[in-house]
Amino acid sequence: MSVEVTGISKTFGAYAALEDVSLHAKSGRLTALLGPSGSGKTTLLRIIAGLDQADAGGRILFHGHDVTNVPAGQRKVGFVFQHYALFRHMTVFENIAFGLKVRRRRDRPSREEIAERVHKLLQLVQLDGFPNRYPAQLSGGQRQRVALARALAVEPEVLLLDEPFGALDAKVRKELRRWLRRLHDEVHLTTIFVTHDQEEALEIADEVVIMNQARVEQVGTPQEVYDHPATPFVYQFLGNVNVFREQSLALAGNGIYFRPGSLVAGGLVYVRPHDVEIVPHEPGADGIPAIVRHVHTAGPQARLTLEQVQTREPVDAEISRAELDQLGLQPNDLVLLRLRQTRSFRPDYAI
Amino acid sequence: MAGAVISRLASSAPRAGATPRAVTDPAWLRYALLAVTVIFLGVFLVVPLAAVFTEALRRGPGAYFSAFASDETRAAIKLTLLTAAIAVPLNLVFGVAASWAIAKFQFWGKSLLTTLIDLPFAVSPVISGLVYVLLFGAQGWFGPWLDAHDIHLLFAVPGIVLATIFVTFPFVARELIPLMEAQGNDEELAALTLGAGGWQTFWRVTLPNIKWGLFYGVILCNARAMGEFGAVSVVSGHIRGETNTIPLQVEILYNEYNFVAAFAVASLLALLALATIVLKAIVERKAHEA
C-alpha cells in the first residue's frame, strides 16, 4: 500500500505549518520524515492519518485511492503516538484488544479469536508475560511496544509513528529502533515515521524525507542524502559541517578538492569535519594555514577545533586517534588544512 | 477545591527518606502553624457541629425522632431529595459536556465560557434567586406570558429546581476541566484511529479516565444542592409543606422557637456534610491510586 501526498498545505491562523508538500512513500518501505521541530513533519503525519485536516486543494492517496475525506477510523492506518497514548485504565491485553472490540458485531472477531490475536501480537513485541499489567507498571520502551501492538492489532495497511522513540533514553532508543527495523522486515508494512534524530533516520529508514520550514528539502536513501545533500540546510542538519567563503580558499592552492562543476563563484563551501585533512605546516605547501585551539580525545575519534590564520574563523576537524598521535598535535601548533570533499552553494541559500 | 484530584495525582512522587534538616522550617513555626489551624478548625467547625447534635438531642432520642414525624418536615425532606435528584443529573450532563468542549476543543469565546461557568460561585446566591424573580416573577420579563399560559415557576417547585441548578452548576465542570486538560486528547485520538466511534470513545476511554473526578464533583454538587439556602429562599415563597426545603424548614422551626426540631432537622444536613467528607476522602484516595 503506497502513500501519496500531493500539494498539502496547512495553516494555523497566520502560521504556515505545511506549504505545498508532496511526497510518495513506496509500498512496504520504511520512510522517515526527518526535520527539526517546527518543520511540519508531525502535522504532515497527522494529516496522513486523518487526525488533522489539510487546507483545501491537497490530496492524499492510499494505493491510488483518494482518502482525503475519509475519516481517520476508516483509513486503515495504525498510529503510534509520541507519548504512547495508551488507555491508562486498561491492561496491556485490553489496550491491544480495543481496536477489535469496538468493531461492529458482524465484523468483530470472537472472544477466542481476539485473545489469540492479542497473544500473537504480545509475542511479536516481546511482551508475552505482561498481558495483565497496566501502562503505569511498564517502562517507556515496553509502553511503546504495547502502543505498536495495539496499532498492529487492527491490521492496518499503513503504519504511522510519531517520534516513536523520542521519549526514551539513548540506550533503549537504539535497541528499539533496531528492533523496529527487524519487525518491519518481518511484516513489510508501509511505514512512515517522524523523527528529529538524523542518526535514527539514517540508520533504519529505506528512504528519508528531510523537511524544513514547512517544506520538503530533499528525498532520498540515507546514503544519497548524507553523501549528496541538495541544500545547505540538509548539509547542516545531517551532521556537523564547516562553512568556508570561497574567496578565503583561493590562496590554499591545490589542497582543496572540488567536485567537478560544483564550484559556485563567490559561494559558500561546505565541508564535513571528517573531510578536513590535517598536515604539518611547511612554508609554500598547499593548504589553509590554521592554528590548533582545542583537542578533544574523549570518544572514538579525535575532534579538533582550529582557527584559520587569515580569517580567524573556526574549523572543526575529525581525525582518527592514531592519526592524531602520529601528528603529535598540541594546542597552538600551526598546521595546514586540506579539504577532501566539498560542496559549494550560492550564499543566498545560506542559513 | 477545583483540581484537588489533580494536585493529589501530581504530588504522588515517592518521597526519599526523611526531609533533610536544611529544608525544614524551625520547630516553633511548625507548631505555631499547626496550633493556629487546629484552634481555627475547632472554633469554626467542630464546636458548631457538636452544638448541632447536642441541641438536637437535648431532650433525648424520642424528641429527636419525633421532629421528623411532622408532615411539613417530611415534605421538606422529600422536596430536597426531589430537587437534588433533578439538579444533580442535569449538572452532571452539563458539566461533562462543558468540560469536554473546553478541555478538548479550541473555539472562539472559550475563555469567556470558562469564566461564565464560574459565575454562580462569584455571585451571591440571593442575587441568583432575585434574577429568577426578575425573569419569571409577576412583574418580570416572562411573568405575564407564563401567567397567561398558567405556568407557575416562582413560589413553586420548578423555581426551586431552577435556582438550585444555577447555584450548583460549576461543581462538576470545575472539577473536570483541569483534569481533562491535563489528560489531553491523545487517548481519544488513539481510539479514533483504532476505529472507535464517538460514543464508544466516550464510554470506553474518556469516562473511565475521569470517573473519580466526576464522582468527586457530583458529591460536592449534591451537598450544595441539598444545602442551598439563599437562592432557594428567594424563589420558594415559604409555603409550608409545599415549597420548603430542609434548610428553609430549619429556619422556620427555629423562628418558631422549636429548637429541638430545628436542630434535629439541621442535623440531617450536618450528617450529609459528614458523609460527603468521608466519600470525598475515599474518592480522593481512589483517584490517587488509579
Write a concise keyword list for the protein shown above:
heterodimer, A: 351 residues, alpha+beta, six-stranded mixed β-sheet, five-stranded antiparallel β-sheet, 30% strand, elongated, B: 290 residues, mainly alpha, 15 helices, globular, disordered N terminus
Summed up:
The complex is a heterodimer of chains A (351) and B (290). Helices cover 27% and strands 30% of the residues of chain A.
What does this structure look like?
The complex is a heterodimer of chains A (351) and B (290). With 351 residues, chain A is an alpha+beta fold. Helices cover 27% and strands 30% of the residues of chain A. In chain A, helix 3 packs across helix 4 (140-153). Helix content of chain B is 76%, strand content 0%. By secondary structure, chain B is mostly helical. Chain B has 15 helices and no strands. Mean pLDDT of chain B is 87; it is low at 1-16. At the A-B interface, strand 6 and helix 4 of A face helix 11 and helix 12 of B.
Total of helices of chain B: 15
Structural Rg of chain A: 25 Å
The geometry of chain A reads as: elongated
Low-confidence stretches of chain B: 1-16
Mean pLDDT of chain A: 88
Amino- and carboxy-terminal Cα gap of chain B: 19 Å
Instruction: Specify the helix fraction band of chain A.
Output: 25-40%
Largest sheet of chain B: none
Mean pLDDT of chain B, to the nearest integer, reads: 87
Helix content of chain B: over 70%
Calculate Rg of chain B over CA atoms. Answer: 23 Å
Secondary-structure-based class of chain B equals mainly alpha
Distance between the termini of chain A: 37 Å
According to DSSP, the number of beta strands of chain B is 0
Quickly give the structural class of chain A: alpha+beta
- Strand residue percentage of chain A: 25-35%
Strand content of chain B: under 5%
Strands in their spatial order, largest beta sheet of chain A: 6-7-8-3-9-10
Count of DSSP helices of chain A? Answer: 10
What is the H-and-E element order of chain B?
Answer: HHHHHHHHHHHHHHH
